[in-house]
Amino acid sequence: QVHLVESGGGLVQAGGSLRLSCAASGTIFPINEMGWYRQVPGKERELVATITSGGSTHYVGSVQGRFTISRDINTVHLHMNSLKPEDTAVYYCAATIIMTATMRHLDYWGQGTQVTVSS
After folding, report:
1. How far is the C-alpha of 4 from the C-alpha of 110, rounded, in Å?
2. What gap in Å lies between CA 32 and CA 104, rounded to an integer?
3. Is the pLDDT of residue 47 over 90?
4. By the 8 A CB rule, do 69 and 50 touch?
5. How many helices and strands in the chain, by DSSP H and E?
6. Could you tell me the sign of the dihedral formed by the alpha carbons of 113, 7, 77, 72, in that order?
7. Does position 5 have pLDDT exceeding 90, yes or no?
8. Distance CA 88, CA 8 (A)
9. How far is it, in rounded angstroms, from Cα 79 to Cα 13?
10. pLDDT tens per residue, range 56-84
């Protein structure tokens, strides 16, 4: 039922910046956590950054200090600075709804947006 749409991907030179955005629609329950994952061909999808409804953030070590995640209700952004070629990947937006009665987690994913960093 929840639909996530990413935008902001593109081609940038090493050292440059990009801002990814993701808007969630169709929600009838509050989204507890939103985040960004990325995937390179032949590699497993990895978590990049997450942010809870309370504002707590988490970053994978490789992007710490370079990326910043922010959120406004059901919209999440990822500001990426000092980009490196190894940041090249398809970036996916994700959202999690926790059903309080059962504590079951419901996960939703966007279609993905390509980020390419050239050297």
Report:
1. 5
2. 12
3. yes
4. yes
5. 0, 11
6. negative
7. yes
8. 14
9. 15
10. 999 999 999 999 999 998 899 999 999 99
